[in-house]
Specification:
Keywords: Mitochondrion
Domain Reverse transcriptase: 1-112
Pfam families: RVT_1
Number of strands: 4
InterPro entries: RT_dom
Order of helices and strands: HHHEEHEE
Protein name: Reverse transcriptase domain-containing protein
Structural class: alpha+beta
Distance between the termini: 23 Å
Largest sheet: 2 strands, antiparallel
Strand order of the largest sheet: 1-2
Length: 112
């Protein structure tokens, strides 16, 4: 599974509020995120529609920005967990104090 498929909408909503987006803009963004409808293409014809239940739409320009904010929030949570002693640096990365690296929708952690 990719990050686009698994990010929860309530987490996105909370991140947008914490970052400081105005309430009206949060509502607009969440309306765009939470109301996708999908269809199945069978032999060149669209058949039926069903609602999405979580995740972000890949290819949607807004999804990239939202995922960036989500990754930043998750990165901050990892940093806090290390500070609180819930995780420790991997022995190889302790000196450099590297706990994780983020790139696009990937996260690589170096923790014990």
């Amino acid at each position: 599974m990719k990050a686009y498929d698994t990010v929860r909408w309530d987490f996105i909503n909370n991140v947008l509020k914490i970052v400081g987006f105005p309430d009206t803009m949060v509502r607009w963004i969440m309306e765009c995120v939470t109301t996708p409808r999908f269809s199945v293409n069978i032999n060149g014809e669209l058949n039926g529609y069903f609602p999405g239940t979580r995740g972000l739409r890949q290819g949607d320009a807004m999804s990239e920005y939202i995922l960036f904010l989500v990754m930043e929030a998750f990165s901050g949570l990892l940093d806090s967990a290390i500070t609180d002693g819930k995780f420790q640096f991997h022995s190889i990365c302790r000196k450099e104090r590297i706990s994780h690296l983020c790139f696009a929708d990937d996260l690589l952690s170096f923790l014990q």
